[in-house]
Here is the input.
Amino acid sequence: MKMRADRTPLQTIERTVMKSLSFCAAACVAVVLVFSSSGAGAQGVQYPTRRIDLVVPFPAGGATDVIARLAAQMVFEKTGQPVIVQNKAGATGEVGSEYVSRANPDGYTLLVATASTHAVLPAYHKLAYDTVTSFEEATLLATFPNMLVVNPDKVPAKTVAELIVLLKSKPGQMNFGSSGSGGSVHFAGELFKYMTKTDMVHVPYRGSAPALNDLLAGSVDMTFDNMTTVWPFVQQGKLRALGVASLQRTPLAPDIPAIAETVPGYEALSWVGVVAPAGTPPAIVERISALFGAAMRAPQVENRLKELGGTSAPDTPAEFKKFLTDDRAKWENLANAANLHEK
Here is the structure.
């Protein structure tokens, strides 16, 4: 090695060592960056490594709860990690939703979001969180149409057209029950009123069960609840179905016309999906989407959904985000047009 005349042997050795150390430091940084960039992906692949809490913002026993428990069981069987369904009901789903919005964004506290909690409720009143920015959308789970049913002893109408004529002859004298103000059942009825230019009184309850009990007892005239809830009573002859709130008839009840056959464009779908708190790493959100999506594609789950009048509808996080945003915009437009904001 040739040394410069103005540099001592010791200085030359020190310079060589420093160059070597600099090279090692750069190499170490490169290695760290490689592992850091792949860390989120590895984290997603490993997820879950412990119990998942799946929050249902409604009481046990309803359609949302049933679907959540079906999915939870399938995810448990796939991963070996328990998925515990927690029912945190109140304020049309607002209580449970806010709880999850404030949870640690690590993928271990998830929310079963619905049309009520994430599309209709924010159109009705101001929330303590934002249903779009406070969550990371993972996947849609299922959709099912609402159904217009009446108490046959109180309402003589046998078709949607006959009901419209009846309502127009008795403005403000008939009523419909719902699972709560600002929920999807409430707005399904309001949409019907708006599109048919009829007038009836909204009677809110604390959930579908008490509303259904009063409908069966004759305290209210009708409801626009989801098919999962009301169809068994139609089959028993205790309620009369006038129409389903999907654009086409449902295969489960092909003889029941779509309301849209009489009121073109009328559609009021209920849906259920999974969201995580905002800030949850994308790799974990993708993993949640894959696990719950696979659960909804399981034959036993799809068959059970068909029995309930629902359709399995898993999608990607991006697709679910667009679906949710579009549905929220639809109900916000109705709230503005019909002045449905909470007074």
User: Anything to note?
Assistant: The mean pLDDT is 88. The radius of gyration is 27 Å.
